[in-house]
Specification:
The complex is a heterodimer of chains A (147) and B (226). Chain A is α+β, with helices and mostly antiparallel strands. Chain A folds into 2 domains: 23-53; 56-146, 2-Layer Sandwich (Alpha-Beta Plaits). Chain A is built from 5 helices and 4 strands; from the N terminus they run H-H-E-H-E-E-H-E-H. In chain A, strands 2-3-1-4 form a 4-stranded antiparallel β-sheet. In chain A, a hairpin with a 4-residue loop joins strand 2 and strand 3 (95-101). The longest helix of chain A has 29 residues, at 25-53. The radius of gyration of chain A is 31 Å and the shape is rod-shaped. Chain B is of the alpha/beta class and 226 residues long. Chain B has one domain (9-224): 3-Layer(aba) Sandwich (Rossmann fold), CATH 3.40.50.300. Chain B has helices at 51-58, 81-91, 107-112, 121-134, 150-162, 180-195; strands at 9-20, 23-35, 40-44, 66-71, 74-75, 92-95, 168-172, 199-204, 215-220, 223-224. Chain B has a 6-stranded mixed β-sheet, with helices on both faces. A 4-stranded antiparallel β-sheet of chain B has the order 2-1-4-5. Classes of the chains: A alpha+beta (147), B alpha/beta (226). Chain A binds chain B through residues 1-5, 7-8, 11-12, 14-17, and chain B through 1-2, 5-8, 36-39, 72-74, 79, 83, 86-87, 90-91, 167.
């Protein structure tokens, strides 16, 4: 029987260490798996980090009973309070949103600080920070659609 | 590495010399031969004629002093030592006169030994059992070699040689330690493997073995004489 170079090609390639052309199924499967895992990671990791970092935060929303805008000098003391993470004004300065760590402070302590400036105000709401952020985003989206 | 060749095995100007007390002794002297895929060849000659040396060089076990052994287009002694080991694993099943079974391993373990580095355990065991069954020793697969007769040990050696489905089986005096009837059965088994497509090269000094082969090569004083 004449020698047939194709008959033992696979064995010969294994001996000589010749790599097959193209990408093998296992390498392709590994690439796809890593891509999926990285994609999931990109989506889920920042969310998980954000959830972890904001798990103790609440928002307290105040309004001056006069209906005026909040004076900036009254906010400096609030910003320096332990546990207060962020102080913002919205609705053209008419509402004050204070983001705080509920383990270190609360609306009562913040109200005491505001009263030192002789302001008359009301606590409109206290809400979980993440929930408030989500509601605000939805409101903005609804406003955009209305326009 | 690929060379234009016509035969499965080609031996070119093969020489093997040994140093013996300051003088050079020629074991193989300018041997040229070819063996086709699927042939059953016996290499015959007297003791010391060089036939086992020739077989060792065909099996990538012994580097020649000069010359080439080309199998499936591969020049065996231009390969690295690891490639040559891979070649032996992929291409060759060896059967030795003294069986070379490992005494503290069972029949099944001896036969599955050549597959130690490849495949899944269950699959390996199934393959090993299949060849043990083929040589008629399924009911003795859990025995140690010293609980088997000489013919049975030889059959274990055959099973071990074929478990990796090598295209080439090299046997060095496979019937040397067996009585005539058992030797005949072993040769029948080798002939059966040859009919399935294995190329068989058997070194023997027993002229009765010639009847099983498709071709006989005679070695005399290190030269191929016929």
């Amino acid at each position: 029987m004449a020698w047939d170079p194709e008959k033992y090609r696979e064995k010969r390639e294994r001996v000589l260490g010749i790599q097959k052309k193209g990408i093998s199924f296992s390498i392709m499967a590994a690439i796809v798996s890593v891509t999926i895992l990285l994609g999931l990671g990109v989506v889920t990791v920042p969310n998980a980090v954000s959830l972890w970092q904001t798990r103790h935060l609440d928002d307290a929303i105040y309004r001056l009973t006069t209906g005026h805008a909040w004076p900036d000098q009254a906010l400096a003391g609030i910003r320096n309070m332990s546990g207060v993470k962020k102080v913002t004004k919205d609705h053209h300065g008419g509402r004050l949103v204070i983001t705080f760590d509920r383990r270190h402070t609360g609306p009562e302590k913040m109200a005491g600080q505001l009263k030192e400036h002789g302001l008359s105000f009301a606590l409109l709401n206290r809400v979980n920070h993440r929930q408030h952020r989500q509601i605000t985003a939805e409101e903005k989206e609804a406003e955009g659609e209305a326009l | 590495m690929m060379k234009p060749v016509d035969h499965f095995i080609q031996v070119h100007d093969l020489v093997k010399t040994y140093a013996d007390g300051g003088r050079s002794v020629s074991a193989i002297d300018q041997v040229n031969l070819s063996i086709d895929d699927g042939e059953f060849v016996t290499i015959m000659g007297r003791s010391g004629s060089g036939k086992s040396t020739l077989l060792s060089m065909l099996g990538a076990l012994m580097r020649p002093t000069s010359g080439k052994v080309v199998v499936d287009s591969m020049d065996l002694y231009s390969l690295g030592s690891e490639q040559r080991a891979d070649f032996r694993s992929e291409y060759i099943g060896f059967i030795f006169q003294s069986f070379q079974l490992i005494p503290y391993l069972t029949v099944l373990e001896n036969v599955s030994l050549p597959m130690a580095v490849t495949g899944l355990k269950k699959k390996k065991m199934d393959m090993a059992m299949a060849v043990i069954d083929r040589v008629g020793l399924a009911d003795k697969h859990d025995r140690l070699p010293d609980r088997l007769s000489g013919g049975e040990q030889e059959r274990v050696a055959i099973a071990r040689a074929i478990v990796n489905h090598p295209p080439l089986i090299l046997a060095d005096e496979p019937t040397g330690n067996l009585d005539t009837d058992t030797a005949g059965r072993i040769m029948e088994q080798l002939a059966s493997l040859n009919r399935e497509g294995h190329t068989i090269v058997v070194v023997t000094h027993n002229p009765e073995m010639e009847a099983y082969a498709s071709r006989n090569i005679r070695v005399r004083d290190g030269r191929v004489s016929a």
